[in-house]
């Protein structure tokens, strides 16, 4: 059935990421009490996390919310094949639930994107507290986002290069297409040696409180050309278990988030480069991200550019 190909392909990638799986399993192991804990799984996909909670950790029950009917039907079939019976399936977007008949001591949601907020995790977990018993635990608990300038041209060559090489090869002007490609957000592998200077944390969200967006970062650049920015996150799933998409950590299926710059910025040691990231993840069709870069010399703005996805 062709309609299963797309969702299956997403879940195949997730399930192949043992760093992700092990981190979520370790986090649940710390908080799931056998035969006692109810787990509410928001965005349950293939049902994998709920299967770990019930079959491996003996949770009392799991309630699975999944908006995609194909993924939900797959999870039911897998549960049946694994003889897991203490599951309640809800084929709906969890954010539409007005008053939940089920509460859990643990609410878990793996709705993290390469750009952490792109799968609406803010909205899902803000509403997700509705499903929590008093003193219940939300996984992930804390999310931190980081940024560093990219001073190697390689990632830009990867995203814009195909247009330039086709333009040269067939004598065409494809500049407009290159420009649009430079205004997109990418999932790419960024190597630590492609980064310039210090990384900076620009956002910290504690899901146990109402999440507040603070998306701003400023840093002083070394003498270099800045080709774009690498953005990554650390999710403290529970205390002592952190999952990271940092270029300094082992690679996950999320890789790193790359925000290219067009035009690139030539900086000397005195220049200060500011980056402002604005994102709207309330959009059901995806996540809109704008990034504005300002370059200042001796306090005076000498360049500014805005990229929009
Ligand atoms: C990244 S997958 C994770 C699947 C599974 N939890 C796992 O870890 O293998 C996220 C899934 O959440 C679903 N989803 C995202 N937000 C949701 C929401 N608020 N309510 C229900 N489903 C949601 C998507 O359709 C997708 O299948």
From TrEMBL:
Coiled coil region boundaries: none
The residue ranges of the Methyltransferase domain are 35-139
Alphabetically ordered keywords of this record? Methyltransferase, S-adenosyl-L-methionine, Transferase
Q: What transmembrane ranges does the database entry give?
A: none
According to the lineage, what is the superkingdom?
A: Eukaryota
Give yes or no: UniProt keyword Zinc: no
- Record carries keyword Zinc: no
Protein arginine N-methyltransferase domain: from which residue to which, for each copy? 146-283
A Pfam family cross-referenced in the UniProt record is Methyltransf_31
* SUPFAM superfamilies xref list: S-adenosyl-L-methionine-dependent methyltransferases
User: What does the record list as GO biological process?
Assistant: methylation
Please give the Gene Ontology molecular function terms for this protein.
Answer: histone methyltransferase activity; protein-arginine N-methyltransferase activity
Q: Any idea what this protein is called?
A: Ribosomal L11 methyltransferase
Species of origin: Planoprotostelium fungivorum
